[in-house]
Amino acid sequence: xxxxxxxxxxxxxxxxxxxxxxxxxxxxxxxxxxxxxxxxxxxxxxxxxxxxxxxxxxxxxxxxxxxxxxxxxxxxxxxxxxxxxxxxxxxxxxxxxxxxxxxxxxxxxxxxxxxxxxxxxxxxxxxxxxxxxxxxxxxxxxxxxxxxxxxxxxxxxxxxxxxxxxxxxxxxxxxxxxxxxxxxxxxxxxxxxxxxxxxxxxxxxxxxxxxxxxxxxxxxxxxxxxxxxxxxxxxxxxxxxxxxxxxxxxxxxxxxxxxxxxxxxxxxxxxxxxxxxxxxxxxxxxxxxxxxxxxxxxxxxxxxxxxxxxxxxxxxxxxxxxxxxxxxxxxxxxxxxxxxxxxxxxxxxxxxxxxxxxxxxxxxxxxxxxxxxxxxxxxxxxxxxxxxxxxxxxxxxxxxxxxxxxxxxxxxx
Amino acid sequence: xxxxxxxxxxxxxxxxxxxxxxxxxxxxxxxxxxxxxxxxxxxxxxxxxxxxxxxxxxxxxxxxxxxxxxxxxxxxxxxxxxxxxxxxxxxxxxxxxxxxxxxxxxxxxxxxxxxxxxxxxxxxxxxxxxxxxxxxxxxxxxxxxxxxxxxxxxxxxxxxxxxxxxxxxxxxxxxxxxxxxxxxxxxxxxxxxxxxxxxxxxxxxxxxxxxxxxxxxxxxxxxxxxxxxxxxxxxxxxxxxxxxxxxxxxxxxxxxxxxxxxxxxxxxxxxxxxxxxxx
Lengths: 413, 279
Prior knowledge:
The complex is a heterodimer of chains A (413) and B (279). With 413 residues, chain A is an alpha/beta fold. Chain A has helices at residues 40-54, 57-71, 81-87, 106-119, 133-144, 155-160, 162-170, 185-198, 216-224, 226-239, 254-260, 289-292, 330-337, 348-362, 368-380, 402-408, and strands at 26-27, 30-34, 77-79, 91-96, 124-129, 149-154, 174-178, 203-205, 245-249, 270-278, 294-298, 300-305, 341-347, 389-394. Chain A contains 16 helices and 14 strands. In chain A, the strands form three sheets. In chain A, strands 3-4-14-9-10-13 form a six-stranded mixed sheet, sandwiched between helices. The longest helix of chain A is centred in the N-terminal third of the chain and has 15 residues, at 40-54. With 279 residues, chain B is an alpha/beta fold. Chain B contains twelve helices and nine strands. Chain B has a nine-stranded parallel sheet with strand order 5-4-3-2-1-9-8-7-6. In chain B, helix 8 (164-169) links the parallel strand 6 and strand 7. The A-B interface holds A 24, 32-42, 180-181, 186-187, 190, 193-194, 197-200, 294, 296-300, 302, 305, 307, 310-313 and B 55-60, 62-63, 66, 70, 73, 78-79, 103-110, 130-133, 135-136, 153-160, 163, 167, 178, 181-183, 186.
């Protein structure tokens, strides 16, 4: 049941910040296994199966093959020259996860977990989705491996992300609109957990971010760490040094964790996570769990949550449906508490501006999620010297967002 | 010290009948109606009361209890008001055991020590916290036991013989057997499967075993009562209350009395089950 020494990430030292979680699935006080008894044996099975897979070279070989020929990895590390010139300070690179098959980093995790589900002999896949990016990636891998896929999506999100709903259906997935609660990502996750507790024998729950009960936060992080591992190699080739700063947007935080994790022990690298500031953290309408929340327990783990004085969960708000979640992965909460990663936020408006700047200057339409990371860079880059290297995770492409951006800009299509 | 739960189950054991355990959601649809219901449950035959602590994200609950939790939250229920209901009940009823059932976050947010002290003072006897498996025992289970409260653990069809001892280790008061893999108020269990499961659990513990999830009718409650030490009904009672609300969500006049009549049919069937089985 307990994790052994072999779970320490490759290359980590005894005092490494990369050695978590502990045997109870905790990063400091965060993480854990706060699930109903019915699910407990299932997540222990999953932990065991993942431990075995992780130590099996054949598993990694199959995953690498898929990353190469199906996803299109490695993703480029691209020097954003016009943006750098315009901001007049730090040198800005984009890690181009938006060029992956399905248009975001979500496929990295889905491929890893679908291989695991097959090893475990599971015959039915369920997933939750907010904006639909993880739903699309889940539907994609299920199509490829001929597994039935049921995606839970809040009814509100189904309405505002119609193109992705249609994509999932084209890929052969069933999409269930969740009307309980407020009909957004957290309610979709509740409903997926209710499904799992009802269908324990054949069903694999494919969680899309670095949250949920142990071992999900660590497992999803591991599958996403390919982002940071490639970045490390690529930046050394391009610049002959590690980056000075890493920046990524954080909702649940899987693209950020993937970029950050391989650099946690590189103390010279400053690491910044950008939460969704919504209308401004001071207005209460935001999804900045760390800046505007407090520690609590939801969806299987202890982490920073948006909650009221009585421990009831609050609705997040963000212009980006992918960041609209009232929690954050537990490892982020820990990295915040120990001060290794700095968490800031960008408002809806700042993200919207960054979305347009990136499109016009670089010819890249970023996802609104990624635009939050860029909004922070736009604030800080001008103040930094020209030899300061920033790498940003461009986690997804923005095609899915053009309709809602048009609406926000008052443009009728 | 013997708790109200232990006293109650011991008495029922001597009488040779099963406990009827009634669940309602605190503050549903409003504080006063909820208190009227709560204070009438014992007279309607409830041997043990489970009082739901509403939570915005009740992951183990089906639509009926989800909706009742949201109604209660909308009407302003808080942890303090939930404890107030128990405190008021204790002014007139010092024997019926009251178990609070819910999720960990509102307790964690209140502070475990603070919560336990207030729950004890209010007259709470035990806790069922759905999202705290034995792996997280040091969070609340151990402190609750130290504070003199019973901690009632859920055992489920997925809890195999290897795992059962760990699940039972810190359980006290009674064991709550979740008769189906699923959420509250869903499919009804097969009586024969339940009887087998109870025998399996009893092989590991001398604690009473109550069964819940999916019991809706007096007949089903009676079937369970023939095999188990207690039958728990929640969603069906909460749904009976929901059916008594007008279009604005307010309880119609006489609503608590009619819900309690339904509770009476359940408790009568539970209490008579073993007599009719013996015929």
